[in-house]
Predict the structure.
Amino acid sequence: GEDVEQSLFLSVREGDSSVINCTYTDSSSTYLYWYKQEPGAGLQLLTYIFSNMDMKQDQRLTVLLNKKDKHLSLRIADTQTGDSAIYFCAGGGDDKIIFGKGTRLHILP
Amino acid sequence: EAGVTQFPSHSVIEKGQTVTLRCDPISGHDNLYWYRRVMGKEIKFLLHFVKESKQDESGMPNNRFLAERTGGTYSTLKVQPAELEDSGVYFCASSPDRNYGYTFGSGTRLTVV
């Protein structure tokens, strides 16, 4: 069945770049999303990329998509303490969205 | 604009009881989704409304779950009778159309004891 996989934890020093990786199995996904969840909050949509794109940049965020390998990554430049959260990768098409389990980003001082 | 609102934020009920969760989507969003996250697992899709109609309810686990969306506005998700495995966080999301991302609510944490 459809699956989205991502590592569960990532630790990065403040000021460094964070790279969160994700793989997906459903090649029919029209969109690939990155969501951020902070404690006590819902899943906040950070950015999304159309499946026919290979890169999207939005301020400190860069999304790279390798369609051949079904690999998606989220790079956060100059990581700040406020970036500490769980990041969900998700793929969608039609009316469904499949989430990964989430990567917990821990910021080291 | 106001976000997606879910009530209650937490609910603790005994096995066999009934619980009703509510979701108020962003005004004007025709699409409303229910998701569930069981501890340590993915956030699973439950069902999708377009206005008041159920577009896809393939993720509903069994007939103990009943979702409604009165007049195409807010939605309720009733669990009757609740079982221990129903514990988890129930998320609601809405979107204006399929070409836009989803806005999620903060979720309802349901604990069945």
In short: Chain A is about 0% helix and 60% strand.
